[in-house]
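Regression test case RT-17, inverse folding.

Input:
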């Protein structure tokens, strides 16, 4: 399983997107804060397709992402954190604080055991994407 880091733009919150075809049906998704419809896929397939097309092109940012980068897997994140600590934890304290480990700072056994279950990421998401059965990708 991989890890992505993503930042969605705030054009929706600022009222700067093109008009949404279903503004009263928008909700924040559970996968980070990607906007989605509050309707089940089943029975609303065409609305979801329209909404996905809107989201992809509603502002200057493709699919509303300011940034969306593949980071690594958990082993890679741990190796990166270890490299930062080896180079000087004080020098990279801001970067270390922003990595997923920061959300589990109190769980120090996780720091010592790279095989321990990973904490819930705060600003990172696992790269296990929901795939709709007949979703069309533009
Ligand atoms: Zn945008």
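Golden output:
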């Amino acid at each position: 399983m991989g890890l992505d880091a993503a930042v969605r733009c705030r054009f929706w919150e600022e009222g700067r997107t093109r008009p949404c075809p279903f503004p009263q049906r928008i909700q924040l998704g559970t996968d980070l804060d990607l906007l989605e419809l509050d309707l089940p896929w089943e029975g609303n397939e065409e609305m979801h397709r329209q909404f996905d097309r809107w989201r992809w092109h509603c502002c200057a940012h493709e699919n509303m992402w300011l940034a969306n980068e593949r980071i690594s897997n958990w082993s890679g994140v741990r190796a990166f954190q270890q490299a930062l600590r080896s180079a000087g934890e004080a020098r990279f304290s801001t970067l270390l604080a922003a990595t997923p480990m920061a959300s589990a700072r109190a769980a120090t056994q996780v720091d010592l055991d790279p095989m321990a279950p990973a904490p819930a990421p705060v600003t990172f998401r696992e790269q296990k994407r929901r795939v709709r059965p007949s979703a069309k990708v533009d």
